[in-house]
Amino acid sequence: MTRQPASPPPPTRAELSDHLVRTRIAGEVATSRENNLDHYRSLALRDPHYMFGLTLSGEWTFADILELMAKKTGVVADPRHREGQDTIDPERTIDAVEEMGDRIAAVLRRGGARVIVATGHPTGLLTVHLALARFVVAHGATLLVPAEGWSYTYGGLGRRRRIRYLDGVAMLDDRGNLVHTHDPHPMRAMLAEERPDFVIADHGWAGAAGEAGIETVGFADCNDPALFVGEAEDKIAVAVPLDDNVLPRYYSPLTAYLLERITQGL
Q: What's the predicted TM-score (pTM) here?
């Protein structure tokens, strides 16, 4: 009988911080300062593409959003820094990962949780969501898969996108390709069919769930301010700042750290 190699232990906090910076999940991230500021302006103007399905009660000017993002993610706070490099503070990433883990553990401790897991980043964050989906099922939760196959025409181009599940994780496909999306409409269709107790997601999947009053935790890049504003307005329980599209294998230490945090809380 061939023995499978043992999984490495989860990293320490210091090890994870070093890894996040080395792989640019945090630290000096690939997302440019110009892109960040453009998205903050777009959210301040209430561009639906950047709202992620949330409605906001506060005024949330560009200056307000930049101030919040500096506080929550560690981007440069100085509005005079208009181009070049921007940053995510790895310590804030880890703080939010720990808070997310505590939230998930609390849901699992209650027993019988009905959970939806969804991602708009099938080329990056999917690996994290798959691991979380397996973990919550192994600890007594039920993964819901509502509206499988539901479709709609996206962007006025005549192409239809459909909800597709991979091992319980919801995504969109486009003629067989899994696609990146900010769109809240698929989650709204899912919630119309079946309402979960808890959602783990990103982008519009998370925003639509939080807007519907469901306890929601999610991942967000520093150019995706909506979930952080939603967190500030108590619609999103936890938003974890990170680069959301590095090589999938780079997320393994973060995933191990998160699962260990959940385990400690059970």
A: 0.95
